[in-house]
Amino acid sequence: MNQTYYLLRNREIPDIDQMAVYRAHGGYEALAEALKQYQPEALVDLVKRSGLRGRGGAGFPTGVKWGFLPKDGRPRYLVVNSDEAEPGTFKDRELIEKNPHQLIEGMIISSYAIGATEAYVYCRGEFLYGSEQLKRAVKEAYEAGFLGSNILGSNFSLNLFVYRGAGAYICGEESALLESLEGRRGNPRLKPPFPAVAGLYGMPTIVNNVETIANVPQIVTHGAEWYTSMGTEKSPGLKIMSVSGKVNRPGNYEIPLATPLRTLIDEYAGGMQEGRTIKCIIPGGSSVPLLMPDQLDTPLDYESILQAGSMLGSGGCIVLDDTVCIVKASARLVKFYREESCGKCTPCREGTYWNADVLERIEAGEGSERDIDLLMDIADNINGKCFCPLGDASIGFLVSAIKHFRDEFEAHVREHRCPLGAKVYDTVNN
Ligand SMILES: Cc1cc2nc3c(=O)[nH]c(=O)nc-3n(C[C@H](O)[C@H](O)[C@H](O)COP(=O)(O)O)c2cc1C
Ligand code: SF4
Question: Atom 6 (ligand 2): residue with closest C-alpha?
Fold first, then answer.
């Protein structure tokens, strides 16, 4: 199908990761325009008017967040979250590996808007190539005078640092990320205060996702009205969806928000592979409840998905087909959260272990009918009782799986085996 690219222009412009190519296609013109045509407050206002919402998961309005910074003369920081460890989500990886200058340009404009003189990118530990790409592009940007002192002859100066974490999912949570960036163990901080008030080194800090900031040059170039002309009033603009599972063309797709889920799967991702049908869909990364095939007409925007019982989250759309054992899928995901729980609070630290153990029992055909209720009971003891959202994330899929596919859990218990013949998920060998 025909696709117009904005954020994923790397798909049609080879070598756009190189400064010369990026500039030949209009790169850094948005920065020049921002510095020349806008006072910082006017840029914050532009982003507010565009309605851009954070693409890291929660969908918080970006311009509103920028407006929370206290005006008290303290140094301010911009930190870009490139931790991207949510299973099923791989959009930020493409953005930093294939078009690093787009992010860097967005960071310079955003730093100018919020009054930051230092900016950081926190990369997931496994993103070795992506972080190297960013470092190379940052060097090019310094050489071209887009970073450093008096950028493009203005009185705005910015230094930009690329930091690679050690590979912990919890370091994607913004306050754990800041702890890690400061050199400590990545445990979440108590909120409030939120990072906008007391963030990196205790200073006012804006933490934004890679995709969020990559949108900023586009909004400066094309205007707020262009952005609000796509999507809905509350969810305007573009979103990159990562599609995985047994579809014909898994990958990242840039869609106007409110595109129906069916269009994403059937048209963008080329439909299901021959002989496969959809069992259920996780629309927003592994932390969100599943949607059923009769919900395929749900528009992919924040409000519609919430109304349908799930969340847009990070945009990781995992399509599970009819050969997938729902107990095995639940065990696989719960074990991920068990491994990634930082251990700071009891409901998450203990609950993820309990759920993983019980699921392993059921999967191996050794569970009892009581175990299914036990899973729901443990989930209830996690829900809303944890120090950070990872706890709730660990049960999002599980609870919805039991709700929609209880008969499949019961069949494992009754028949003492997987009715679909799936092998038991084994953390070591799978
Ligand atoms: C366990 C956990 C993991 C997270 N991982 C990420 C991540 O990898 N990338 C990201 O941008 N946000 C992640 N977030 C959300 C961040 O805490 C934060 O809300 C986000 O970076 C803000 O950026 P935005 O406003 O641009 O969405 C995570 C949150 C939690 C609770
Ligand atoms: S919910 Fe889990 S990850 Fe978050 S603080 Fe508690 S133990 Fe750590």
Answer: 345
**What mean pLDDT value characterizes the chain?**
96
Measured from the Cα of 391, ligand 2's closest atom is: 1
Q: Which CATH superfamily is domain 9-228 in?
A: NADH-ubiquinone oxidoreductase 51kDa subunit (3.40.50.11540)
Residues linked to residue 42 through DSSP beta bridges, in sequence order: none
Cα 34 to Cα 18: distance, rounded to the nearest angstrom = 22
Q: How many CA atoms lie within 13 A of 306 on its CB side?
A: 9
**107 burial type by CB count under 10 A (0-12 exposed, 13-18 middle, 19+ buried):** buried
Q: Whose atoms come closest to the Cα of 211: which ligand? A: 1
Q: Tell me, what's the pLDDT at 3?
A: 79
Question: What fold is seen in the domain 326-415?
Answer: de novo design (two linked rop proteins) (1.20.1440)
Q: Which of 287, 336, 342 to mutate to test the pocket of ligand 2 (most atoms within 8 A of CB)?
A: 342
Q: Amino acid letter at 372?
A: I
* Longest CA pairwise span in the chain (Å): 74
CB 139 within 8 A of CB 173: no
The Cα–Cα gap between 353 and 337 comes to 9
What DSSP string describes 168-188?
-GGGGSHHHHHHHHTTS--PP
Distance of CA 170 to the CA centre of its chain: 13
What architecture is domain 238-321?
Answer: Roll (3.10)
**Nearest-10 crossing angle of helices 128-143, 91-98:** 40
Cα-trace Rg, the chain: 22
Q: CA 140 → CA 109, 151, 238, distances in Å?
A: 17, 14, 28
The answer to whether the CB of 205 falls within 8 A of the CB of 197 is no
Q: How confident is the model over 195-231, as pLDDT tens digits?
A: 999 999 999 999 999 999 999 999 999 999 999 999 9
DSSP state for residue 17 in the 8-state scheme: T
The pLDDT tens digits for 266-284 are 999 999 999 999 999 999 9
- CA-nearest residue, atom 12 of ligand 1: 56
Q: Is 83 in a helix, a strand, or coil?
A: coil
